[in-house]
Amino acid sequence: MKFNYQKICSSFLKNLPQRTTDIIERRFGLGTPYQNKFGAGQAAKRETLETIGESYSITRERVRQIEKEGFPEIQSRIKEYQGVFRYFDNVLKSFGDIKKEETLLKFLGGESSQNHVFFLLTIGDNFEKIPETQDFYSFWTRKKESVDLVKKIVKSTIKELENKKRPFVLDKLFRIQKTNLLKISNRKLSKDIFNSHLEISKEIQKNSEGQFGLKNWLEINPRGVKDKSYLVLKREKKPLHFTQISDLIKNSSFLSQKGEVHVATVHNELIKDSRFILVGRGLYALKEWGYTSGVVKDVIFNTLRESKRPLSKEEILRKVLKQRVVKENTVFLNLQNKEYFLKDSQGKYTINPIKEA
Length: 357
Known about the structure:
Blueprint: H1 5-13, H2 18-28, E1 34-35, E2 41-42, H3 49-56, H4 60-75, H5 82-94, E3 98-100, H6 101-109, H7 114-123, E4 128-130, E5 139-141, H8 145-164, E6 168-169, H9 170-185, H10 191-198, E7 204-206, E8 211-214, H11 224-236, E9 240-241, H12 242-251, H13 263-272, E10 276-280, E11 283-286, H14 296-307, H15 313-323, H16 328-335, E12 341-343, E13 349-351, H17 353-356
Antiparallel strand pairs: 1-2, 3-5, 4-5, 6-8, 7-8, 9-11, 10-11, 12-13
Helix pairs in contact: 2-4, 3-4, 6-7, 8-9, 11-12, 12-13, 14-15, 15-16
């Protein structure tokens, strides 16, 4: 539904003293929207009590008083614009009576009329703004009792994510929480309402792939090149050269990479982090995939120790090539290291007892 919010707000301010009108317009940023450098509509700036007070040579408290004195006259005209307030009421109702302020203002007013929408919500009888806290972003509600409900839903979802230890897209998370939501609210909630509840939480966040998780998870907020390299490898599910990893970090929108990624930095970070295993010349894999650390000699040593029996050259080769991307001759050359490996009369290899000890 389309409304001329600027015209409606101007009507509310009509017949007020000029100074009162000016103060309210500046406090709420109700001036004419302007175009930013990209040609998009941009709301006027809201001004502080101090700034306005300085321009009138009065105290910030006096500015507050003048603003407050104008509100009874403004609110006496609300009945003339019931259509816009019914629209706001229906929108909030469709979101389960709760909506994050930033999202609601954009939804109702776009980029250019957010301040006008904020003003109308402020003077409306049925709407209340809940200020930002340590755990929640600021949001608007039409029913105060909905605040306790949304907090219970968020708490339940945080607990579920902690148990699952992995992020989920909205559809999957909604299905997982469906039974809990019914117990908490005693009524069926839609996926959109569930999403509205989650978005006010600071603990639950969504990454650029649309997955919901806890804010401290690297899948949600990767910190630095190491975490981003880890996510790239996990996404690709195969060993990659550090130059490939670097390119994928730069070109992957899901990582929201800012600034330049240096290949040398990626290589250095991979070397230092135990989550990554060098499996070939510049090729890295994740340790969690079953790769072990060390050079080819170490891999052969671990292979023989785990087998607990002599192995043929071919058996060793197959097992080592699952761990390292190297040429066959590299494996065979390492087997000739008699300090570590011995060949028995049947041509099979064992660990030199000296090293075994």
